[in-house]
């Protein structure tokens, strides 16, 4: 059950020079399933990441943060390793040892230092990582390394996702083309058992040290941090951007004429990937865009968008195709803008002007709202009437299927 | 579908001297249904209230706030009027006129000033209040006034509640007994169409002007503000405490020897009523107590309790009787305590110690967690290990029925 989510086609996923992927079946949780992914980068690649703010973050997230701080800008992060089937979260000291042991084993296979490797895990939590299975199968993944394995990589990081998620974008700059390809997984921001949102994007442009970290944070806020299925933040969420520097384009500063072009393409790609997670959201039957404008700050627009996107009442109304618009107004009202003048608030459902100056638009007909509600792609536009800031979020509805998936998962 | 919620019995609901209730059937939304309630107080009664913080608050809430500020401590709020079937919210200027017209009509019937009356509405929003029906039926409600009409009053304020909610407490003080009786409605904190949590408590003790407002806020935070069904805050939520001063007990200050006795009884009664709302929560099959201790501040304990209580993942796990404990840890982790040391966190499910020092308790057996999860009354105890503050919240699970009720309400 996905919402307008086509399967990625292998020939649409462009190789990124200097970036390879190798896959293995390690039998971590189930047999005969791609569950181990190794990715490698040419020396000199810039790597940046954004990680979960959850205080119960998983051991690999802690290791990632450290290795990235040490080596991400020095061009010395040269490999990544991802296992599914086990999140290595809530695993205490042993979890940390296992994450480091994974790095050490892959370092030996690739003749690197363990600090040059970023580890990722996703799957069930509170269970020890089957470290032997991982270590024993790393050589198989390494032997499989190839620039053309994007679709396999997308499949290898899936947990409850019903479809692999991957996309490519190419942008022409004054110094030549830049190719970027990305994969992600999520199926509900969260997987029933605290798996993860994982996102990886590689591009062949070069970046001067220090440029990529700020850009990655900005892109994350506009993409993976702008989607929500159920508001739960996982212990393992990670988003990594890598730049191999193998193209003719080399960006030295944000003032570089090509920076904004590459930035824009990266935002486009990250948003495409992020929206795929919503379209494959647990139980999703509708894809909903919430566009909040007229705010004093982006932050307050975000508060309103999140309040609407998280409201179970709003989400069940979308599921029922019921234009129950008071629920959206109420969510705006409790979003946390203490001095909001509700008489300035306007709200549209698709092209239908529903709430005018804080009350029901006299021209609004319920049949018009009903018509919009019955479509599978719905935009809610809210104008707070107090400034020019704006923020867009994407979410899905709350269905019986969501309850079933999350109630029945382990039984 | 309620969770261990007995029907209130008429003879258990004690009259409060100086406080009368009268009920009418005004046909506001449906015929042959008690939907209009008038309550009167003897002159000199102290009245205090706590109202929704939703910026889209309903017209009657705004009128209540004004009249209460004017007359609540002066002993001149002498009547309240509640209609169900229509929330008079999202109704703009006309809504305000209608709320004031209701006060004016009742003032004429009772020979009071309109400013001596508090109006309340609950029901559908974004629809004009059928003001004629209300005004025409106020005399019937007035003719029905009686100190013994508590059960009828509880029935008259119901919307999607499946049962009336009422309770009485009597406390012995050194100056004689104090009787307090209360009613409330909620059925989900929110009703599908943004009705309301309404709570009214009357007691016969006397209070010096100014004492009751602070006490009412404190009691609300420990009762009606400590419950959640789905995290949505309605446009009409109101909680009113009234003291008629007809008993022999007269409290002059917080240092009065009887103040703490009366305070404690009031908290007990308000918590009884608040828990009834959870037990009748939309789709509820489990009653869940979340007790967070060991915090530096009450506020941070509340953040954690709310994060756990609002998590759809946690709530569906309770519905499924699945001891999926990582979900609770994850909610603790994202609750917003930036410097939380997760290695200090302990968590119990009922009497079973599940998470020890931030990880799985080595002695924990899933069968023990399963045993607790299968009961209908579950306590989650969390120790943050960083202080002595604590906060308790009550909530229910998230079931298929919740989605059905809220998705199907208007179709």
UniProtKB/TrEMBL annotation, chains A, B:
The enzyme's E.C. designation: 2.3.1.35, 2.3.1.1
Catalysed transformations (reactions): L-glutamate + acetyl-CoA = N-acetyl-L-glutamate + CoA + H(+); N(2)-acetyl-L-ornithine + L-glutamate = N-acetyl-L-glutamate + L-ornithine
Into which family does the record put it?
Belongs to the ArgJ family.
Quote the function comment for this protein.
Answer: Catalyzes two activities which are involved in the cyclic version of arginine biosynthesis: the synthesis of N-acetylglutamate from glutamate and acetyl-CoA as the acetyl donor, and of ornithine by transacetylation between N(2)-acetylornithine and glutamate.
Q: Name one GO biological process term.
A: L-arginine biosynthetic process
Residues reported to bind substrate: 159, 185, 196, 282, 406, 411
Q: Name one GO cellular component term.
A: cytoplasm
Tell me which UniProt keywords the record has, alphabetically. Answer: Acyltransferase, Amino-acid biosynthesis, Arginine biosynthesis, Autocatalytic cleavage, Cytoplasm, Multifunctional enzyme, Transferase
Query: Which GO molecular-function terms appear in the entry?
Result: L-glutamate N-acetyltransferase activity; L-glutamate N-acetyltransferase activity, acting on acetyl-L-ornithine as donor
Q: Name one Pfam family in it.
A: ArgJ
Task: Tell me where it resides.
Answer: Cytoplasm
| Metabolic or biological pathway | Amino-acid biosynthesis; L-arginine biosynthesis; N(2)-acetyl-L-ornithine from L-glutamate: step 1/4; Amino-acid biosynthesis; L-arginine biosynthesis; L-ornithine and N-acetyl-L-glutamate from L-glutamate and N(2)-acetyl-L-ornithine (cyclic): step 1/1
Q: What is this protein called?
A: Arginine biosynthesis bifunctional protein ArgJ
Q: Does the keyword Transferase apply?
A: yes
Is this entry keyworded Transferase? yes
Q: Which organism is it from?
A: Polynucleobacter brandtiae
Signal peptide per UniProt: none
Q: Provide the taxonomic classification.
A: Bacteria, Pseudomonadati, Pseudomonadota, Betaproteobacteria, Burkholderiales
EC category name: transferase
* Name of encoding gene: argJ
Q: Which NCBIfam families match?
A: ArgJ, PRK05388.1
């Amino acid at each position: 059950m996905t919402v307008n989510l086509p399967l990625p086609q292998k020939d649409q996923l462009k190789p990124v020079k200097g970036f390879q992927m190798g896959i293995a079946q390690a039998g971590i949780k189930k047999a005969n399933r791609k569950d181990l992914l190794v990715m490698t980068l040419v020396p000199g690649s810039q790597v940046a990441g954004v990680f979960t703010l959850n205080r119960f973050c998983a051991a690999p997230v802690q290791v990632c943060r450290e290795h990235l701080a040490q080596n991400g800008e020095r061009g010395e992060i040269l490999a990544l390793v991802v296992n599914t089937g086990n999140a290595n979260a809530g695993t205490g000291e042993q979890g940390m040892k296992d994450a480091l042991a994974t790095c050490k084993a892959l370092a030996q296979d690739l003749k690197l230092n363990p600090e040059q490797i970023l580890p990722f895990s996703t799957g069930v939590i509170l269970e020890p990582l089957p470290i032997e299975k991982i270590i024993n199968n790393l050589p198989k993944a390494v032997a499989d390394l190839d620039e053309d394995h994007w679709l396999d990589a997308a499949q290898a990081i899936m947990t409850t996702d019903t479809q692999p998620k991957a996309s490519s974008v190419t942008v022409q700059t004054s110094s030549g083309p830049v190719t970027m390809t990305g994969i992600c997984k999520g199926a509900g921001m969260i997987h029933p058992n605290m798996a993860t949102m994982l996102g990886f994007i590689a591009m062949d442009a070069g970046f001067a040290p220090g440029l990529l970290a700020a850009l990655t944070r900005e892109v994350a806020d506009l993409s993976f941090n702008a989607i929500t299925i159920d508001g739960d933040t996982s212990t393992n969420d990670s988003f990594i951007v890598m730049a191999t520097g193998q193209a003719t384009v080399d960006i030295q500063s944000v003032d570089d004429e090509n920076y904004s072009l590459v930035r824009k393409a990266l935002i486009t790609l990250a948003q495409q990937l992020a929206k795929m997670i919503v379209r494959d959201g647990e139980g999703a039957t509708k894809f909903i865009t919430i566009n909040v404008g007229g705010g004093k700050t982006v932050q307050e627009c975000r508060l309103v968008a999140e309040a609407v996107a998280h409201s179970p009442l709003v989400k069940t109304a979308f599921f029922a195709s019921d234009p129950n618009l008071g629920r959206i107004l109420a969510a705006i009202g409790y979003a946390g803008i203490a001095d909001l003048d509700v008489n300035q608030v306007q709200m549209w459902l698709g092209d239908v002007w529903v709430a005018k100056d804080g009350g029901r638009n006299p021209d609004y007909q319920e049949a018009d709202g009903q018509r919009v509600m019955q479509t599978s792609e719905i935009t809610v536009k809210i104008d707070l009437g107090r400034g020019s800031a704006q923020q867009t979020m994407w979410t899905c509805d709350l269905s019986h299927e969501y309850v079933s998936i999350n109630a029945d998962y382990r039984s």
